[in-house]
Amino acid sequence: MKRLLHGKEGVWFLVGLAAIWHLVSTYVPFSGKYLFPTPLVTFKALWISLPELLKGTGSSFIILAPGYLLAVTAAIAWGILVGTTPALNRMFSLFSRLASPVPPTVYIPYAIALLPTFRTAAGFVVFVGAFWPVFLNSVTGSSTMPQRYRDNARILGLRRAEYLWRIVLPAALPHIFSGMSVGLVFAFIMLTVAELFGASAGLGRFVQLYADYADYPRMVAGILYTGVVVLLSMELLEQIRKRVLFWVK
Amino acid sequence: MGIGKNAMTATTTQQEGLEVEALRFAYNGTEVLADIRLSIAEGEFVCLLGPSGCGKTTLLRLLAGLEKPASGTLSWKAKPITGPSLERGVVFQDYSLFPWLNLAQNISLALAKAHPEMGKKWRINLADEYLDMVGLSDARRKHPFELSGGMQQRGAIARTLALGSPVLLMDEPFGALDPINRAKLQDLVLDVWSNAAPRKTVVFVTHDVEEALYLSDRVVMLGSAPGRVIDELTVPFARPRQRRRLAVSPEFAALRERIDGQFRQDVLERIDSEEFRTAGDI
């Protein structure tokens, strides 16, 4: 949040955008106020929906957090192994080049059909969405690690496990963190899309529900709220990154 | 093949210390080192002196076990060098320390390898002692990015001390330092070398003639393209040496002149032979 307020330009831009929104929704008569609610109506809707939205956030994070954390852990571990083992890299790279560009949203209907509960299905697609960016960055980070770290590790006679844990992992962390922020955005996209399909709660479900009821002020409020949640989550990740990577200038 | 024969004679004539026999090294088809022969006694301080591109860093990496020779042998105390070992500590020009660990943690990582049986607390305490020895008492918990180049190199020296390596390999360790810090660290290395019992064997790579003459017992001069030993000389000055006295000593000036002359001569010979070759092509 601090960064958002640091440059006042960003704030003024948002104020301007809200003003234009107000003017257009008040004075341009195209589809009526129901489809395009004014800012005031929308924020009122946001206010009264807040308890429901907070509950929805909780329900979303119950799916998002395990899926994302599992994906990050698996992607870092596997990525570092692949990045430091040429034979493993040769074995896995064809598959990863084939599988990683597939937009993970295409898995949603099948995951829902295949897996026993909505939660496991949504968790799975969140996992897939977050896995590839983190994995690819872990491979890059560990395979392009400066030679001098390797030399020093060899001088000290580090065993492979120590080498991976104490040298390669920290050295690859700058790459890994950029993969993690891309992965987090993907995780949110996957989750909300999955919730549009078949959730009983959650942020995507909230938007879908009020769209079905044609309650557009609430729907727009849900979209705005989701944006803020993603922003705050990204900011949290950024703060963690700064702490962990204190040694990177 | 001659290689096998050389290896045979190497094992029969070997003494205690570092031995390099008929060493060749090539990189991408280019010969970097040609037929290097070198004997360094245990406890000796030897400088490898040469211009950039003479392969002195490569020779040091070979001694460290970080590279494998195309042919020839390297050994320490009659044992062949096949890879890195705690017996041979290395100080690189920059970046010997891991930036995500503070000084004590960097040293402690080395201690964990040298004394795997000891606990973490013991290691950190000992790490602090080594840091005190190199004048870094106030910087124990600082990370490399918070330290000057000179302090980082002090830390790197403390790390090799912690490894307890009898051999110290130093690759232009003070090349990036200002003259004052460079002089201080040269004296630190001399202290470390002469205070250890038994004395450490030091191979110190530099392109600075005065540094080589100030530090070493013996200077080995390497010429370029391909790297080879063009001459070596024993440094006669008694220890402890004093910079002030050396600076005005005619003997020091003569040695410096002799070394400069050798390198000049080598460059001229190289140029002549290349011109000759080019003329021959036409």
Overview of the structural elements:
The complex is a heterodimer of chains A (249) and B (282). With 249 residues, chain A is mostly helical. Chain A has 11 helices and no strands. Helices cover 84% and strands 0% of the residues of chain A. Chain A is elongated, with a radius of gyration of 22 Å. Chain A has helices at 2-6, 8-27, 32-35, 39-84, 86-99, 108-114, 118-143, 147-156, 160-198, 203-212, 216-244. Chain A has 2 domains: 1-30; 37-244, MetI-like fold (Orthogonal Bundle), CATH 1.10.3720.10. The longest helix of chain A is centred in the first third of the chain and has 46 residues, at 39-84. By secondary structure, chain B is of the alpha/beta class. Chain B has a domain at 40-64 and 82-87 and 165-281: 3-Layer(aba) Sandwich (Rossmann fold). Helices cover 44% and strands 22% of the residues of chain B. Chain B is built from 9 helices and 10 strands. Chain B has a 6-stranded mixed beta sheet, with helices on both faces. In chain B, strands 2-1-4-5 form a 4-stranded antiparallel beta sheet, sandwiched between helices. In chain B, α6 (179-195) links the parallel β7 (167-171) and β8 (201-206). Chain B is globular. Chain B starts with a helix and ends with a helix. The model of chain B is unreliable at 1-14 (pLDDT under 50). The interface between A and B is medium-sized, with 18 and 24 residues.
One letter per element, helices H and strands E, the order of chain A comes to HHHHHHHHHHH
The CATH superfamily name of the domain at 40-64 and 82-87 and 165-281 in chain B is: P-loop containing nucleotide triphosphate hydrolases
Residues in helix, % of chain A: over 70%
The CATH topology name of the domain at 40-64 and 82-87 and 165-281 in chain B reads Rossmann fold
- Separate helix tally of chain B: 9
Instruction: Note the main sheet of chain B.
Output: 6 strands, mixed
Query: Which CATH first-tier class of the largest domain in chain A would you pick?
Result: Mainly Alpha
The named CATH superfamily of the largest domain in chain A: MetI-like
What would the CATH topology of the largest domain in chain A be? MetI-like fold
- Per DSSP E runs of 2 or more residues, the count of β-strands of chain B stands at 10
Spans of at least 5 consecutive residues with low confidence of chain A:
none
Helix-strand pattern of chain B: HEEEHEEEHHHEHEHEEHH
CATH architecture group name of the domain at 40-64 and 82-87 and 165-281 in chain B: 3-Layer(aba) Sandwich
Q: Which descriptor suits the 3D outline of chain B? A: globular
Secondary structure tally: strands of chain A: 0
Q: Give the biggest beta sheet of chain A.
A: none
End-to-end distance of chain A, in Å? 22 Å
